[in-house]
Design goal:
Pfam families: NAD_binding_10 (PF13460). This protein has a single domain, classed as Rossmann fold (3-Layer(aba) Sandwich), CATH 3.40.50. The chain has seven helices and eleven strands. Helix 5 links the parallel strand 5 and strand 6.
């Protein structure tokens, strides 16, 4: 499958590039700076300019693509322009360009930003609005909402659910990336939104059970 990964220089997205390439996909990594191209090429993907605040770049980045994985994040610096507006605009552009599949990396508590940590509430609100917009499009969409992220070694095992409550657990970035790749290849996840944390179920089994 021809897949565009948005935010390809990011920590989770870098793992996504690796996971997709290992599965044999033809991967394009969208980044906002030309000096990030080598990072994408080093992971076996083709780089393309994709600044989420510049919609004029979207058509070229989406040309020929069959699917999009949105793994971009502003790091709290531009939640409205990137995490909300950028995600919304890319989803609309993907639909207009004929892309059928869209996998959104979101966040736990996105449905209830007011219940999240105060410092994350603006980010969670942005993700909530982007997720809600994606559901209204005609895209074959899946929304993946991990909890707190870590850089520990992946375990390959997760817990998923519509709403998880053990917030003391985290999830490794590599396991999130592998889950995004698995979701992409699992049509039964289309139309679904789920939360995820580290758990005891192998990723493929957990995704298949959704």
């Amino acid at each position: 499958m021809k897949v565009l990964v948005a935010g390809a220089h990011g920590n989770v997205a870098s793992h996504v590039l690796d996971s997709l390439r290992k599965r044999g996909h033809e991967v394009t990594g969208g980044v906002r700076k030309q000096d990030q191209f080598d990072h994408v090429r080093a992971r076996g993907a083709e780089p393309v300019m994709l600044d989420l605040t510049r919609p004029e770049q979207f058509d070229a980045a989406l040309s020929g693509q069959e699917a999009v994985i949105f793994a971009a994040g502003s790091g709290g610096q531009a939640v409205d322009s990137v995490d909300r507006d950028g995600a919304i605009a890319l989803a609309d552009a993907a639909e207009a360009s004929g892309v059928s599949r869209f996998v959104m990396l979101s966040s736990m508590s996105a449905d209830t930003p007011e219940n999240g940590p105060e410092k994350l509430q603006d980010y969670l609100k942005a993700k909530k609005e982007a997720d809600a917009h994606l559901r209204k499009t005609g895209l074959e969409a899946t929304i993946v909402r991990p909890g707190s992220l870590s850089d520990e070694a992946p375990t390959g095992k997760i817990e998923t659910g519509e709403r998880l409550h053990n917030l003391e657990r985290s999830i490794t970035r590599a396991d999130v990336a592998e889950t995004l790749a698995e979701v992409l290849e699992t049509p039964s996840t289309i139309g679904k939104t789920f939360e995820m944390l580290q758990g005891d179920t192998p990723i493929a089994q957990a995704v298949k059970a959704l």
